[in-house]
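User: Hi! Is it possible to get a structure for several chains at once, not just one? Here's what I have:
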Amino acid sequence: MSHFDLILKNVARIIHLSPDEERVFVGFLEEKSVKNRQFLLEEGKVCRHSTFVCHGCLKGYTVDKNGFEHILSFAPPDWWIADMFSLFAQRPGQLNIRATEASMVFQLSKTNQELLYQQVPKFERFFRVLTENSLVAHQQRILDNLSLTAEERYAHFCQKYPSLVHALPQKEIASYIGVTPEFFSKMRSRLLKTSP
Amino acid sequence: MSHFDLILKNVARIIHLSPDEERVFVGFLEEKSVKNRQFLLEEGKVCRHSTFVCHGCLKGYTVDKNGFEHILSFAPPDWWIADMFSLFAQRPGQLNIRATEASMVFQLSKTNQELLYQQVPKFERFFRVLTENSLVAHQQRILDNLSLTAEERYAHFCQKYPSLVHALPQKEIASYIGVTPEFFSKMRSRLLKTSP
DNA sequence: CGCGACGTTGATTTGCCTCAACGATTGTGG
DNA sequence: CCACAATCGTTGAGGCAAATCAACGTCGCG
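Assistant: Yes, the chains can be modeled jointly so their relative placement is included. Here is the combined structure:
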């Protein structure tokens, strides 16, 4: 029951690995502990890793011209995160990736990822499926943003990230669903009155 | 200069094919002409094809509980479109795909796509890159929806789909950027006053 | 202890929606 | 080929959801 357990189970949901292949895979990983508020990637830098969260939580977000954060994604334990644009193109991106609490992660560098593809080709399939699932989730979020009210988007958020609803500062959730912290607070107190 | 020209050039932007491989590829395609307003996919059906637009234009959209359309994507010539969720999972999806004008398309069935992977493995790479690019574009759109005003989103639309700005009914554009047709009309006349 | 980050609440404003009425265009069946 | 319907775009009046601005209480942490 090693600390690789979570990430190996994550992979096993999509592809089956032999013990040898598991060893090759974990050999490419770099373990890293991250302090609260520490950056893993800053706007304007080139993203050189995919990051898998073991425990804690990260967020990926941009900052607009007025200084407001807009959260693209959270990464609680068992999730992957990266600036996909920057990682694919190996060019500077606009995303910040940062811990919302003290965390422990594994990082797979772009270089190691390509070595991994050569040594264990079925990882091509793994990351392809990951990308496909992510695309589907993002399409759903666009449709939600177009068709749902803030309350409904919050309800969806609670379903999608049940573990985060109470673990995260409210302003982070507000930013994710696309409202101001003030409005989010009012909305929440309104919800508590009707359904305790 | 055959009618396969456009789709072969589209593929060539990402992978290089030998004449033999080109022949295999086009052998898997089904040509189809589509009348204006004709459906290529209806909500609740399983999506069994990727569709490439040669000329004309398609749209992918959902209908909400109040009967309003929300457009997830347009597919002008040289673009691919499908209900990714339904295509990947081979389960019923919520997307409608429909022509916004008389169109000509090529369709690659999921079955043929898998045969193609076997016979020309580099197509794995092609569709992976397509998915990656699509993911990046969708992430950008989410961030735009979170941080930009309707006017700014319209400006982005004009940059992204210059050929569609004048070819498409205004209500379709309004639906894509997430405002009502009435508001879109007012916004547009406001813009025309300041910048003729 | 005191300072910053967070959450709450209220007053006011605004971006966008709703509803309704009205031309202009398109297209379609008789 | 025309009449009529359907679709589309425009405009105006009024309404609502959410933003903005500001004040204040609370907590955790250095």
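The interface with chain A takes residues 62, 64, 68, 70, 72, 84-85, 88, 94, 124, 128, 131-136, 138-143, 145-147, 175, 178 of chain B (CB under 8 Å). The CA atoms of residues 171 and 182 of chain B lie 9 Å apart.

User: Great, thank you!
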